[in-house]
Amino acid sequence: MSLLLRRIVPASQLRWGASTTAGRRCLSTGSPDTVAETAGINVSKLQITRKNPSTPPPSSSLVFGHTFTDHMLTIPWDAKSGWGSPHIRPYGPLALEPSSTVLHYAQTIFEGMKAYRQENDKVTLFRPDMNMKRMNSSARRIALPTFDGESLLELIKVLIRLDKHWVPKEPGHSLYIRPTLIGTQKAIGVGPPNEALLFVICSPVGPYYPKGFKPVALYGTTEYIRAAPGGTGAFKLGVNYAPGVMPQKDAASRGYDQNLWLHGPEHHLTEVGTMNMFVVFKQENGTLELVTPPLDGMILPGVTRDSVLSLAREHIAGKKRLGNLPDNLVVSERPVTMKEVKEASHSGRLVELFGAGTAAVISPVDRIGYLGEDVLIPTGEGGMGPVSRPIWTELVGRQTGAIPSDWSVPVAN
């Protein structure tokens, strides 16, 4: 049995800079029925209960999301006193009442982010500030308490430092980090909860494509929808994911890897499985147009989506030229329909189509099953096209530290 050592860690020993926002107060800006100002997360009150470090399994045996590190972070909240003392403790079960609102009304949100081990053994996070902003946005949407993102990030860094030996060394591997916030009010009834729990768990993961890039086939889903105007598609809520499992099984039974979520009578493209979607068209004047659906309330504002758009726009503006990325490139955030994709495929103007997300980074597509026929999509050498390949190279370089960038935030040396 592992030996547990409980100790209170003074803030002076936690090794963060002067920008720490311990004790900051935060304002919940949800609906009028949500809790008003409450005490913020106090980093200085962090408690750590250690366990003897265990030996991570061989990286070659990792299955995404099945293996977890030694410790986790928990922070309770209640409407009267706000955020309680953070606690890093051994990974293990949570104690929840059967009447907890998360179990009945899906009051749960989460994030997905990664830590990378660089060649010099430094561990970094990739654009974690964006995850904190999106998590607060999701919390407001379902009347869960908001929090100070900088304080939570400092605590996540402590958790990663404690379990640093779990961050894989092999190329293409990383530590997946899952912050989660749930309603824990012990009463059956629909309304803003008066109790909640924020927790963070970590999982070492291997590359999404362990044997190299393999383009995926999509099923253009018209029988179901992922999101609707005014709904919750733009937020990372647990309730958005369970309804997609059955359509995913249906797509697999038809011989496709993922759903391409289509919306409305014109079959607008929205997302690919759980990823944002990009299409590249060749215009009549030879210009390549990189298109992604706009953030209209149905589309999740993905961190990788924003990164792809930022890199493409920096290239076009000459701020950071990417090798092999075409110069005749324009970027559009606009609606796109399956009719446009199909016509471009038939006319030879469809250059590539790919998904973008934290897990896969870039996922190329080679065909879409649509209304009884397959719409074929070109794929370049190695499965990636002329736009996705150089963007992927730059993006992964920044994530791993091979390319210096302020998107890479140090965690531990």
TrEMBL record:
Species name for this entry?
Sphagnurus paluster
Q: Which PROSITE patterns match?
A: AA_TRANSFER_CLASS_4
* Protein name (Swiss-Prot/TrEMBL): Branched-chain-amino-acid aminotransferase
Amino-acid biosynthesis listed as a keyword: yes
UniProt xrefs under InterPro entries: Aminotrans_IV, Aminotrans_IV_CS, Aminotransferase-like, B_amino_transII, BCAT-like_C, BCAT-like_N, BCAT_family
Q: Which residues are recorded as modified (N6-(pyridoxal phosphate)lysine)?
A: 236
Q: Report the family membership.
A: Belongs to the class-IV pyridoxal-phosphate-dependent aminotransferase family.
Gene Ontology cellular-component terms for this entry are:
mitochondrion
What GO molecular function terms would the record report?
Answer: branched-chain-amino-acid transaminase activity
User: Which EC main class describes this enzyme?
Assistant: transferase
EC number(s): the record gives 2.6.1.42
A GO biological process of this protein is:
L-valine biosynthetic process
Q: Which reaction does it catalyse?
A: L-isoleucine + 2-oxoglutarate = (S)-3-methyl-2-oxopentanoate + L-glutamate; L-leucine + 2-oxoglutarate = 4-methyl-2-oxopentanoate + L-glutamate; L-valine + 2-oxoglutarate = 3-methyl-2-oxobutanoate + L-glutamate
Q: Tell me the Gene3D superfamilies matching this sequence.
A: 3.30.470.10, D-amino Acid Aminotransferase, subunit A, domain 2
Q: Tell me where the transmembrane regions lie.
A: none
Keyword terms, alphabetized: Amino-acid biosynthesis, Aminotransferase, Branched-chain amino acid biosynthesis, Pyridoxal phosphate, Transferase
> Which Pfam family would be a valid example here?
Aminotran_4
Q: Does the keyword NAD belong to this entry?
A: no
Q: Which cofactor does it need?
A: pyridoxal 5'-phosphate
